[in-house]
Amino acid sequence: MREEEIPVLIAGGSLVGLSTAMFLAWHGIPALVVERHPGTAIHPRAAMFNQRTLELYRSVGIESEILDRANAEFLQDGAIVAVETLAGRELASFLPTLNHGVLDVSPCRRVYCTQNVLEPILRRRAEALGARTRFNVEVSTFETDDDGVRAIVRDRADGSELLVRARYMIGADGNRSPVRERLGIPMTGRGSFSNSATIYFRADIRQPLRERPFSVIYVNNSSLTGFMRFDTSGQSGFLAVNAMFGPDGKVNDVAAEVDDARCVQLVRDAIGVPDLDVEIVIVQPWRAAADVAERFRKGPTFLVGDAAHTMPPTGGFGGNTGVQDANNLAWKLALVLDGVAGSRLLDTYEMERQPAAHFAAEQAYTRYVKRTDPSLGDHDLQAQEDDLCIELGECYQSPAVCPSGQGQRPGHVHPREANALPGTRAPHLLLVRDGREISTLDLLGRNFVLLAGSQDAGWCEAARDAAADCHLPLDAWRIGADLGDPAGRFAECYGIGMDGAVLIRPDGFVAWRAQSPPESRRGTLETALTHLLCRESGPHRATAAA
Questions:
Q1: Which residues contact 197 (CB under 8 A, 6 or more apart)?
Q2: Would you call 375 exposed, middle or buried from its count of C-beta atoms within 10 A (0-12, 13-18, 19+)?
Q3: SS3 (DSSP) at 226
Q4: Over the stretch 294-347, which tens digit does the pLDDT of each residue have?
Q5: pLDDT(540) > 50
Q6: Active site residue 365
Q7: CB distance 94 to 371 below 8 Å
Q8: Which of 96, 220, 426, 481 lies 20 to 30 A from 31 at CA?
Q9: DSSP character for 252?
Q10: DSSP E strands: which ranges in 96-186?
Q11: Cα Rg for the chain, rounded, in angstroms?
């Protein structure tokens, strides 16, 4: 049997697996992606990617390509509504436009771009950065030991096998994850509440659409509940059916009950045109559930994306949560593999991402009950939070964040209220570099970054010296001096004085901040970096000013 060694093996090469490989390669770590399907997605699947996902893709240089493809194929910034039928009565409006009221908090927009469009972009970028992908192969078995993972990768075409030795393995293999099953990690949560089906179809819906700018259309009538979307031509789209109704009442096991004839009727019932000419392209079954894995790590093996959490599509949180998993894990693996950080840094992946997944799953479930299936009942629902709080509002609590000294922090903070609290995403603020307008977020994405106020010239040198002692790549900027701050809002936006500083992680989350300079900038930063990198700590625990 042939053998191969690789730092990281990724089981699963869809949206999250390819994103993981791309982020790892961006940080200089080559990964091998193995995917059981013959190629990238051929059907749409996940459709809405939020601002945080676009920020992460922007950091590795693919935002523009995604927007070009997405704008050509899909209506951007349409309304999210509920109807009895497309031709009939409107029941509710959830958002007047997809990006309504959110453009001040990010340089990026929410965007509709389905996986069959996005995945080839991710694959090309990952491979260009040094990752390798193999399709039509699968991990048939694996074992772990002190040296990492030994996995057998089987070619599904000819049955040949390859032994892969990896320091770490990542399960990005979907909600039925064989990796998770082999590790014996259970899922807990709401469980499954619908065996749904998505019907991809061709039909001319321009007349019933009546040029209304609808992006997502929830349907609730006496025949079905679900939601639908159309491409810009108005002649193809999909209908996701969560439940249908017949002589015997409600049917939740939609996937088991539909054939082409029933699918045609369901599309007609959703559109509201009884004699609509409909061609069924394909029907894909899927399970509506809200569950999270009890563990995101076991030894040298990690779970990301649907392997770690599954949630209904209401809100569009699922795939986006997975992309954030990938980014969170990638920089930590890179620093550990490079010998810069201690291995305990990898424990912070679960500490940070599991609470985020629980919150997103519960918020998606709340929206599912309210928009799609009120019969599930609302007696134990979480209060519905603003979408931005789920998308941009995580407040991480782990050793990879220096505590702020304010006691217990909330799990989420609205991005308009975070003010660079340690553990939250660094705020977006417009700056000027070399005469060109940029975002603070454009300074982030690969290295640790220190941003200092304009009235203290000592922070940047101290940060570079402290980072050099740790062999840690770090960038440092004085805002209002090295970079322009045209609105003069940096100190206010980042919750510091004009002589304070903020340290930001490669994933764009605030790791530490000081509202004003301590007695020893370098010593304070050395202590903070030792803490953040989970290295052998000194006698003092790092803290940050509020």
A1: 240, 241, 254, 255, 258, 263, 283, 284, 285, 286
A2: exposed
A3: strand
A4: 999 999 999 999 999 999 999 999 999 999 999 999 999 999 999 999 999 999
A5: no
A6: no
A7: yes
A8: 426
A9: S
A10: 111-112, 132-135, 137-145, 148-155, 161-171
A11: 24
Per this entry, what is the length of the chain? 546
- Nearest-angstrom CA–CA distance, 50 and 320: 7
Measured CA to CA in angstroms, residue 110 lies from 98, 103, 508 at distances of: 7, 9, 18
* Residue 509 structure tokens: 């989350």
| Extended beta strands in 338-404, E state | none
**pLDDT digits 0-9 by tens, 26-60:** 999 999 999 999 999 887 776 799 999 999 999 99
Please answer whether residues 506 and 396 qualify as being in contact, where contact means their C-beta atoms are separated by less than 8 angstroms: no
Q: What is the mean pLDDT of the chain?
A: 93
Residue 357 belongs to what H/E stretch? helix 347-371
d(CA 48, CA 51): 10
**Which one from 218, 365, 368, 494 is the annotated catalytic residue?**
218
The tokens for 24 are 């790892």
Q: Residues 73, 231: contact at Cβ < 8 Å?
A: yes
Give the pLDDT mean for 194-200. Answer: 91
In angstroms, the CA 132 to CA 95 distance is 40
At 77 the three-state DSSP class reads coil
CATH number of 393-532: 3.40.30.120
Question: Distance from CA of residue 478 to its chain's centroid?
Answer: 30
The CATH architecture of the domain made up of 190-289 is 2-Layer Sandwich (3.30)
Alpha-carbon distance of 434 to 1, in angstroms, equals 56
